[in-house]
Structure formats: C-alpha cells, structure tokens
Amino acid sequence: MIEIKLRKIGNSLGVILPKEALARLKVGEGDALFITEAPDGFFVSAYDERVAEQVVVAKKGMRKYRNALRELAK
Predict the structure, then answer these.
(1) Helix (H, G, I), strand (E, B) or coil at 65
(2) Cα distance between residue 13 and residue 47, in whole Å
(3) pLDDT of 23
(4) 3-class DSSP state for residue 44?
(5) What integer pLDDT is reported at residue 51 of this predicted model?
(6) CB-based contact 25:33 (threshold 8 Å)
(7) Is CATH 2.10.260 what the domain over 6-72 is classified as, yes or no?
(8) Which of 3, 17, 44, 47 is the most buried (most CB within 10 A)?
(9) What is the CA radius of gyration of the chain?
(10) Measuring CA to CA, which residue among 64, 35, 63 is closest to residue 49?
(11) Residue 17, Cα to own-chain centre: how many angstroms?
(12) pTM metric for this prediction
C-alpha cells in the first residue's frame, strides 16, 4: 500500500503520485488514469473499459479480414 496526501493545486485538490506508483501503473506525464468505484473504496488504473471493448471488436475484424489486411500491408 502506498500512502499519498491531498495537496492544494490552484483552487482544487490533487494528489502527487510517487515514482513507484507511476512505474507500477506504467504511466507518465500526460497519460490518463481512471478511477472506478469499488465496494470498499475506489480503484485507480490506467485501464479504460471502453478501450478494451474497442480492442475486442478490432481483433474480431482483423481476424475476419486478415487476408485483405495482409494484402493491404504489402
């Protein structure tokens, strides 16, 4: 568990993530993080469920049209 503190940033509050947390999340400056409500609090991740759904759809399309895509890649 990593403890972080809220800090005043302008008229808002924010958190500063330590290098260890950034490394484990595999994120850097400018990347988006997502907060999901969980039964026992909140969950922070670099995973976006909407993007994951789009990847599944894209994989199905790539599988279906793989020969055409292979020809286009030449």
Answers:
(1) coil
(2) 23
(3) 92
(4) strand
(5) 73
(6) yes
(7) yes
(8) 17
(9) 19
(10) 35
(11) 15
(12) 0.54
